[in-house]
Predict the structure.
Amino acid sequence: MNKFIKLLILACELHNIVIQKTIEKGDYMSYINNGNNLVFGGCDTVALAKKYGTPLYVVDENYIVERCEEIKESFLYKYKNTNAVFASKAFLPLAMCKLIAKQGIGLDVVSGGELYTAIKANFPLEKIIFHGNNKTEDELYMAIKHDVGRIIVDNEYELELIDSISKRLDKRVKILFRVTPGVNSHTHEYITTGQKDSKFGISLSDDIIFETIRKTKVLEKVDLMGFHFHVGSQLLDNESHLKALDIVTELMYQSLKRLDFVTRELNLGGGFGIKYAFGEDRKPVSYFVDAMMDKLYENCKKMNIEVPSTAIEPGRWLVGEAGITLYKIGAIKSIPEIRTYASVDGGMTDNLRPALYGAKYEAVIANKVNEKKVKKVTVAGKCCESGDILIKDLEVPEIESGDILAVFSTGAYNYSMANNYNKITKPAVVMVNKGRDRLIVKRETYEDLLRNELY
Ligand SMILES: Cc1ncc(COP(=O)(O)O)c(C=O)c1O
């Protein structure tokens, strides 16, 4: 290689290091470009806002691919008989279905609508598991007719429906029981699910769980494969997963001893936390799965039972940090000695989580990322609710109407929870990847809002 080329490569590497440093400075997977603008997924966010309008969801495809690779390396290839599905409630446009299918990961759906999306995207249906605490007869019919891989049964009512539909359609159905292990997780009450007092899952009281297993064993077309638990969401430590695992391995042991029932599959749920605030850290998936697999192997050895095949179903962990939302700042109102409100052109219609359960977000002014932060503002949405506040006391440089605000970690449960309160249209979604951008969901129009309305 001649000297000139070597020098050129060195210069490029140095340039990359400089860029990498600014990524760290930004504390997110984004960096400042030569001007003053935030770059995300290789794209200038201010240019994206101009091209597609605001509010705008921007999702980095490469980030999702990297997380899928991490799941494969740290779980699927590392341990025998493992399966991973993406909890599609976190984010499910058709393009996401295609992307997940391409990565060889399965899908967890919880409604006829999510299943329909997967069917339309030609998602391999045997890789789908169907969840929900009140699946309707129509939804169960649809799932069984399309031969979804597993149905996670939440209650006895559903079991009876599955029994009857499977006979009517003459189809075998593989199911797992979702159980409530009675574990309280360290997260918001609205996203904890494993405690005894929960709308989800079958109670582990002896007279309920063993009776339900006994009944299921004799069903003609239904194969009970094992158990499922999901202890909560946005968990930053593995404590509740491990506690639940102890309880469920005991259930496996007791089911074998009392009913001669062999647990062939165990689904460990999702719930792995991500980074929302600056300074927080997303744990690698290995932090959760290694501890759980060690415990599972250890417990099964102690109890002298076979290790079942295992599955995980992360949602937020796979896509949360892949997304940002871009807004335009409009009205700025200062109340002397109290606070300054900076209102944006979206709010609880595109990000319900702060209003729903006080979720915290970080943001920057996308066209002023290099500028010194000099004040705090409260970012307000445009809905007619005083609770429509996206971020309290955000540090910002001097701001003015027309500035672009970029809110981080909005990839999960933002687009999927978007709503039309105040007849506000849902934003577009743009997928970015190493400097390229493509529209994957069109912005809603006023006509879309009235499509189903009649006089
Ligand atoms: C059964 C089940 N699995 C997986 C998930 C995904 O959770 P997370 O996005 O926190 O990984 C949820 C979320 O509610 C769930 O209810």
About this structure: The pocket of pyridoxal-5'-phosphate is lined by residues 87, 90, 108, 131, 193, 230, 233-234, 269-272, 313-317, 412 (CB under 6 Å). The chain has two domains: 27-59+321-445, 61-320.
